[in-house]
Design goal:
single chain; mainly alpha; 286 residues
């Protein structure tokens, strides 16, 4: 005969079941409210936006129009800045992932003089604020002729993204069983073959998590891009900020531009959320 549960046990069971799921769904929907509001605002005319809130669309669906997106495509500043964002984000993400993976493997499994001290130096770079390096690096980039270019913005993001990448991947790669690597070496695998055939497949979740972190940071960056880019290399964040300064009521361009700037990183995150969770949890359980 099943023992009678106490009131506290029944409440705990109820909370951990249906009630908890409902609560999490409500929290998720509440988190999406700004995105939904921005989407509906981008589908309304400036007159409707000035007259009422975005929720008015549910009672008057005739307000929905794609004129703002058509006007956005005619705005050369926004379209070119969106392309610049891609040219900045993709190389900055790929370089950090590739270099961070190679360095993480070297720190985890290769012996070289001062390895531990070099790794401590990498860890120390994690606490260096971005703001401290803005002026010195701006002067350096100006002296070598890349200040105000896409290359300069990419290099800055790569430089500040690598310490975290090396730290994350080194700790993940160090959890790979030594016997597996030694067996591959006995089969004649060199370091590069060992890295690409054994370590990289096993490190997929951590690499995916790192790629998402780096992509989101670079795509949404405003401070670095505002300082290191000019009118020809500015990303979407700077272009939208410029539109606000020059055309304070230019909502028919700002709303669709801001939504596109928001929805792309959201799509990337949801597309790789399974790998992201696996990478974040990597090493938590042995």
């Amino acid at each position: 005969m099943k023992a009678k549960q106490s009131l506290g046990a029944r409440l705990a069971e109820g909370v951990s079941g249906g009630l908890l799921r409902v609560f999490l769904i409500v929290v998720g929907l509440f988190w999406l409210v700004p995105t939904i509001g921005l989407l509906l605002s981008s589908l309304r005319s400036p007159e409707d936006i000035a007259a009422s809130g975005w929720w008015k669309v549910f009672t008057e669906p005739s307000q929905i129009t794609f004129d703002s997106y058509a006007k956005l495509l005619e705005n050369d500043d926004i379209t070119s800045s969106l392309l610049n964002t891609v040219w900045i984000t993709v190389p900055a993400t790929l370089l950090v992932v590739i270099i961070g993976s190679l360095a993480g493997y070297a720190f985890a499994w290769m012996e070289f003089p001062g390895r531990d001290w070099w790794f401590l130096g990498v860890v120390g770079l994690l606490v260096v604020p971005v703001q401290v390096a803005l002026i010195p690096i701006a002067e350096l980039f100006g002296n070598i002729g890349i200040f105000g270019t896409v290359l300069g913005v990419v290099l800055f993001h790569v430089g500040f993204g690598l310490p975290f990448a090396v730290f994350l991947l080194r700790n993940f790669f160090a959890e790979i069983p030594r016997e597996l690597l030694e067996a591959a070496r006995l089969d004649g695998a060199g370091e590069l073959r060992l890295f690409f055939r054994v370590v990289m497949p096993l490190g997929g979740p951590a690499i995916a998590a790192l790629g998402i972190f780096q992509f989101l940071w670079v795509w949404n960056d405003l401070l670095v891009a505002l300082i290191f880019s000019d009118s020809g290399s500015q990303p979407i964040t700077v272009a939208l900020q410029t539109q606000v300064r020059q055309f304070g009521n230019n909502i028919d361009v700002l709303a669709p531009g801001a939504f596109i700037s928001m929805v792309i990183p959201l799509a990337v995150f949801f597309a790789f959320q399974r790998q992201f969770v696996s990478g974040v949890m990597a090493g938590a359980v042995k």
